[in-house]
Specification:
The protein is mainly beta. The chain has 3 helices and 64 strands. Residues 1-20 have low confidence and may be disordered.
Length: 871
């Protein structure tokens, strides 16, 4: 074993009595009247054009100052390089819409510098550094990802001034609200990342603001709710370099080894770095609130560092991050997490609850035992997500507090840890406990986050005539569940729940209005263009495919060999970067006997974007190089025009040949930094030498519909999803609604609302009536708001308006299976019942009465009745 603390010579540490001090608010950001300009507590606002607290270049930006000369301000990094960082524009403001308490500090990003596809440094957005400079969102750029970030610096009156409020403390807590959905939790794993990514950091400067600083990191992702980050006095890195072969630091760093309170008491300045703001588009906003300090004794200050918790109000899922002490190729580690609704400490950790399930960053190690595994030995960061047990989900309401604790259960090999970890601490009421076996705790109070209701879907995948179509409509904000409506849909398409589905019957260009209504009546709408095309309209004439990448290569006779970079390979339907994300480490190509091409012929590259965001890139192509692009041989490469690819869709890059060419190889570099996001699916060639019958087809994401599906048309007879019965969507000839007195409107339709007897349930429509065509079917859409799947056989009558037990002729519908409520999507389960009218003698419908025939209460509803006509 090794030692870092020469000051410790005994194996037992005699500790002071327990001190359970409540957190002290250091910066509340509770601006007077909610206005930035009025300041908060003893901080006042200083705008551009003045510099009362003497910040470097302070007259060019806004800042917060204190009468004693302390300052808190955005730091704008102008180095503009991948190594040293990039400039991000933006300004500070106050917010009463999003806060933990009172108001918060709002940071609005307005653009920044970036490197374009040709390697040139460009500016996007507007270089705003003060609130008064901001006028509108209109000029805040078009780049979807900017590499810069904004840090917030605290400095005292002098370089060596200490922070009085940090005296006697060993915790600094910050609440952060990151831009929602900017990271996909499904892809936050070892499949797409080398390790958890730094999302928020604390850089304390010890003794002087002019010296080196330490690093403390969290790696939580935007979960939709606030993230609570608890920084301690145990760093994992220092910018002046490492001190040992395990890259390990003890509590207190090198200056105050063994004393977290001395480390805090001698902080002269610090930087709060919003690492997550890298690669966000301009006009992104994040919030910081309730910066507080506290002292926590008898906790693991050695091998558990920077504990942080985030929360998703939609899925009731938490995410957790912290740092391990050690970094080396053999430095594995594992921890266990517990929770309770009372404070946890070393005496009651075992009696607290294990989560229902832990999703580890390395998904192979996900488990129901509450164990978090370090995903990469050579990194410090750990991340996981988890849910509480089902019986505790109801506890998660606004204002409720959940207490969490983490304990180190690693089995580190000799030489991969330091003896300080095993030094004993005399814990009151518990006895002697090794430092590494102490718990580390954090509590989290649920804070309601009221995002505005909006339809996130801004572009619609192109429907193809004769193909089964499905497009999810994403709605965010407001209060779930949502009710969606659509006006102006192309023939053959309909809206079912949150999806556009169906089979388009003819080519058209339509303007569609989508509307969303939330659970408290808020509404929003968006106008979208939908262009329906036929297969023939998508074909490219006089075209041949030279290679089709995928799980199995399909090269052509002219190019029968495939080559690629060692970091590039096949993923899903094409070639992409598999290891890392360096744009220069990507190439894929074909070689062979070659093909003669004339001036005016075209090389076509078909790409697919499987990421969440729209991307822009300018690929390179070479007819001679069969290796990576490098600047020294740039003359061998041709840069193509910038292409844009929306999420989930394809795009085409083209090169028109200026002169005849007989290439024996074609090599493509995506020139886009990504990992398993941008796929090259095909290389094609368009040439006048080919016949008109030779053509290339654009990839179609949908399956071919059967003749029966194509010929079917659907007529809505009743849609009960609007709460006001006067607004039910009813067929003009079946325009009267009736129902049992124990039946009524619930959530999105009609169902049992009093009692639970299925025999007492009926709901239906009547009117002048409609004619029934040959091959018609009735289709009933059900919604299930319970947590359990329902399987039942409903009944229907066409001659009786009343309960099935009182009279009428009743027919059984198809056995119906309706899935339970989706806790992640916060959507009720959907199921369908059908009745084939082909063999019945019914040719006229003037009454339709449906009974669920299953005993439930306030959970199962009829949302829609449709007539599907196959004639």
């Amino acid at each position: 074993m090794k030692s870092l603390l020469s000051v410790f010579t005994a194996v037992t540490i005699i500790t002071a009595p327990v001190i359970n001090a409540e957190p002290d608010v250091f910066m509340s950001f509770d601006f007077q009247n909610g206005e930035l300009e009025r300041g908060f507590d003893d901080w006042y606002y200083s705008d551009k054009g003045e510099n009362p607290c003497q910040i470097y270049n302070g007259e060019n930006q806004s800042k917060l100052c204190r009468a004693d000369g302390a300052k808190f301000y955005p730091y704008y990094n102008g180095r503009n390089s991948d190594h040293m960082g990039w400039l991000q524009y933006g300004y500070i403001d106050s917010s009463s819409d999003f806060s933990v308490e009172g108001t918060s500090l709002r940071v609005h990003l307005t653009g920044g510098m970036y490197k374009d596809a040709l390697g040139n440094i460009q500016s996007d957005g507007t270089p705003i550094k003060s609130k008064k400079e901001f006028t509108s969102d209109e000029d805040l750029g078009v780049q979807p990802r900017l590499p810069g970030d904004i840090s917030l610096y605290y400095k005292g009156p002098t370089a060596t001034s200490k922070i009085e409020q940090f005296s006697g403390k060993n915790r600094l807590t910050v609440w952060v609200l990151m831009p929602k959905n900017s990271v996909d939790i499904e892809k936050y794993s070892t499949e797409f990342y080398n390790s958890p990514a730094k999302s928020f950091s604390f850089y304390p400067f010890i003794n002087t603001s002019k010296g080196a600083h330490y690093y403390h990191h969290a790696s939580n992702i935007p979960m939709g709710g606030w993230t609570k980050i608890q920084f301690d006095a145990s760093p994992t890195h220092k910018n002046s370099g490492g001190v040992n072969d395990l890259h390990a630091f003890v509590e207190g760093g090198t200056e105050y080894a063994g004393s977290g309170t001395d480390y805090f008491a001698n902080i002269a300045a610090f930087n709060l770095r919003a690492d997550f703001s890298k690669y966000l588009p301009a006009n992104s906003v994040y919030y910081i609130d309730e910066v507080s300090t506290s002292y926590k004794p008898y906790e693991n200050e050695e091998t558990i560092k920077t504990l942080a918790i985030g929360y998703s109000p939609e899925s009731n899922e938490f995410d957790i991050s912290f740092e391990d002490k050690y970094r080396c190729l053999a430095c594995s580690a594992k921890y266990e997490v517990r929770y309770s609704f009372e404070p946890i400490d070393n005496s009651n950790f075992e009696s607290s609850f294990k989560p229902a399930f832990v999703t580890n960053f390395d998904r192979r190690y996900s488990n129901a035992e509450g164990v978090i595994y370090k995903p990469k030995n050579g990194y410090n960061l750990l991340w996981a997500s988890f849910k509480l047990r089902n019986e505790h989900l109801s506890y998660l309401s606004e204002g409720s507090t959940v207490y969490f604790a983490v304990r180190d259960i690693s089995e580190r090999a000799e030489g991969n840890y330091y003896e300080e970890d095993n030094m004993l601490v005399d814990v009151p009421g518990v006895g002697q406990v090794a430092k590494k076996n102490l718990v580390k705790t954090i509590d989290y109070t649920i804070v309601d986050v009221n995002y505005p209701l909006q339809i996130e879907t801004s572009e619609i995948s192109q429907p193809i005539v004769g193909y089964n179509y499905e497009q999810e409509i994403v709605v965010e904000g407001g209060k779930r569940p949502y009710n969606l409506q659509a006006i102006g849909l192309p023939n053959g398409l309909t809206l079912e729940g949150n999806k556009l589905v169906g089979v388009a019957s003819q080519a058209s260009s339509d303007t569609v209005i989508l509307s969303a209504i939330d659970n408290v009546g808020q509404t929003t709408d968006v106008e979208l263009e939908i262009d329906v095309r036929t297969e023939e309209q998508l074909r490219v004439g006089q075209c041949k495919v030279l290679v089709e990448f995928g799980q199995t290569y399909f090269p052509s006779s002219n190019f029968d060999s495939v080559f690629h970079d060692i970091y590039t390979g096949v993923y899903q339907s094409g070639m992409t970067t598999l290891v890392g994300s360096n744009a220069k480490y990507n190439y894929q190509g074909i070689s062979g006997s070659g093909i003669y091409l004339d001036a005016g012929d075209k090389i076509r590259l078909v790409w697919r974007n499987i990421g969440e965001d729209t991307i822009s890139f300018a690929p390179r192509l070479s007819f001679s190089a069969q290796h990576r692009f490098n600047q020294a041989e740039s003359q061998e490469w041709i840069s193509l025009d910038i292409s844009n690819a929306t999420s989930g869709n394809t795009t085409v890059s083209e090169l028109m040949l200026p002169a005849p060419l007989n290439p024996y190889s074609i090599n493509v570099n995506s020139n886009f930094s990504n990992n398993k996001t941008l796929l090259l699916e095909r290389i094609e060639v368009v040439s006048a030498q080919f016949d008109e019958s030779d053509y290339c087809e654009m990839p179609i994401n949908f399956t071919k519909a059967t003749e029966a599906q194509i010929s079917q048309t659907s007529v809505i007879l009743a849609d009960f999803s609007l709460q006001n019965s006067s607004e039910f969507e009813l067929h003009e000839s079946l325009n009267t609604v009736f129902m049992d007195r124990y039946t009524g409107f619930n959530e999105q339709g009609l169902g049992i609302i009093i009692g639970s007897n299925g025999k007492y349930n009926y709901q239906g429509i009547k009117g002048e009536g409609i004619n029934i065509g040959t091959g018609a079917q009735l289709k009933i859409t059900w919604k299930n708001f319970s947590s359990e799947e329902l399987v039942f056989t409903p009944v229907i009558s066409f001659d009786y308006e009343g309960r099935q037990i009182h009279g009428g002729t009743w027919l059984e519908l198809s056995q119906t299976r309706v899935s339970g409520f989706d806790q992640v999507a916060q959507e009720p389960g959907t199921g369908y019942s059908q009745l084939d009218l082909t063999d019945s003698s019914i040719t006229w419908l003037d009454l339709i009465n449906i009974s669920s025939n299953v005993s439930v209460s306030n959970t199962l509803i009829v949302k829609k009745i449709e007539l599907v006509d196959g004639a």
